[in-house]
Amino acid sequence: MAGAFEKVMDSRKELVEKVIQLMEEGYHNNARAWSIQGLVPYNPESQVTYRGGNRLRLMIAGNEAGYKDPRWMTFRQLQKAGYRLKNDEHGVLCEKWIFETKVKTQTEDGQEIEEIKELDRPKVSYFYVFNAEQVEGYPDLPVKEYELDIMQIGDQLIKSSECPVYEVPQDSAYYNKSADHIVIPARYQFKDAKSFVATLVHEMGHSTGHSARLNRKFGMKFGDEDYAKEELRAELGALFIESDLELDPSGEVLEDHSDYLLSWIGALRKDPNELFRACADAEKISERIIHNYKLYIQQEDLSQNEIVSRTENVSADEAAYHLDQESYLYVQTSEGGYDYTLFDRFFKEIDGGQLDNPSLNIEAARDEILALHEISPELIEQIPIEEYERLPELIGKEPTVTINFSESGEQVEKEIEQEARDAGMTVEEYAANGYEPSQDIEVQTTVQPLIGELQRQSSIEPEKTQKISAGKRKTMGL
């Protein structure tokens, strides 16, 4: 009976032959070699995700059997959970390697401690797992209620790339190691978004081999051994990345891989273990690119959350402005951006609306609103919110100065006519706004400046003032 090592090595050879078969089918069909569907294989009982060679094994096995479920578990696990296998079902062999062990040692003072020691020779074992579709009554895989925007994922991958990515209308995709940049055809040249992303992540996989990153050998020219190994790693990495992103990794790619499929096959037949070394490197490629991608998404979400948090508390971000001595503008943040209201000089609402751009700060939002209403920002003055909040109350009380005229009334009437001209109004319009150029005149303005001005110009004694209450000079445009 073969030991664990022989069993695992035989299984590896079988997997390599299966991969070569897939490659040859892709070569003859002029299609992508990896026509493998499925998400990242994982164990629902232990929450372990299968990686490296085991990942590739289960993806290929699931694809051959037509499984849509990425969940795999051992016989003991499914029994412990209260389930049983369907009749005549067979498991898939997975391997486990142990490179270190725990040993107990004593310190100089006699205290016993546990240390990790690397083994001289790694130990290997194996186990079998079964797909959830092979288990009677196992709960269905929950359906995720969302649609992937694949092209958006591509854009986010480009933004998260550790080197520049250039889209150029031409016929090839490549990573330039010396310049440390990626060139891919323009996205409109691809059959679909999946093909665009597949090519993108293949070249991003190459970029991780840079000396400042994972530092792999690239090979000097097409056809040499290192070149073939690097291409295999980039393609496996692309396969793993696409499955990590929950994309169907069966889309055709623009670039025809068949030219170097034969190089891959030669490298694998020469050393079957090369596939597993390539899988290990492909996991490193995938982990690095997915880490950067998720980090970019988190930063993007954080920026969006900052915008949302700013707009959630309306009272914390508001401003009021006096415009051109004729009107007022009030701006406040809202869920979708900014709400605003325009008032006339008597604080009657004359216009308002929403500005759907939460990325602007309140000053930029104000300027957009002013431009929309053709108001020059040079003529505005910000009002403290406390003063703005008092305006309706003050104006609602009809603040007035009532003056009884005597023999100097004619002079005051002339001054009222001058005030009307200065305000760009006729005397009738001036009177309609609270001014009456007759024996009893009502004037809405700030009290002290008006009283002083009228006393100076018409020689009215302060004691002859019958009624005085407060108001706003700017409210009246004076």
TrEMBL record:
<dbReference type="InterPro" id="IPR041459">
    <property type="entry name" value="MPTase-PolyVal"/>
</dbReference>
<dbReference type="Pfam" id="PF08401">
    <property type="entry name" value="ArdcN"/>
</dbReference>
<feature type="domain" description="Polyvalent protein metallopeptidase">
    <location>
        <begin position="155"/>
        <end position="280"/>
    </location>
</feature>
<feature type="domain" description="Large polyvalent protein-associated">
    <location>
        <begin position="317"/>
        <end position="393"/>
    </location>
</feature>
<dbReference type="InterPro" id="IPR040568">
    <property type="entry name" value="LPD16"/>
</dbReference>
<dbReference type="Pfam" id="PF18830">
    <property type="entry name" value="LPD16"/>
</dbReference>
<feature type="domain" description="N-terminal">
    <location>
        <begin position="10"/>
        <end position="130"/>
    </location>
</feature>
<dbReference type="Pfam" id="PF18818">
    <property type="entry name" value="MPTase-PolyVal"/>
</dbReference>
<dbReference type="GO" id="GO:0003697">
    <property type="term" value="F:single-stranded DNA binding"/>
</dbReference>
<protein>
    <submittedName>
        <fullName>DUF1738 domain-containing protein</fullName>
    </submittedName>
</protein>
<feature type="region of interest" description="Disordered">
    <location>
        <begin position="453"/>
        <end position="478"/>
    </location>
</feature>
<dbReference type="InterPro" id="IPR013610">
    <property type="entry name" value="ArdC_N"/>
</dbReference>
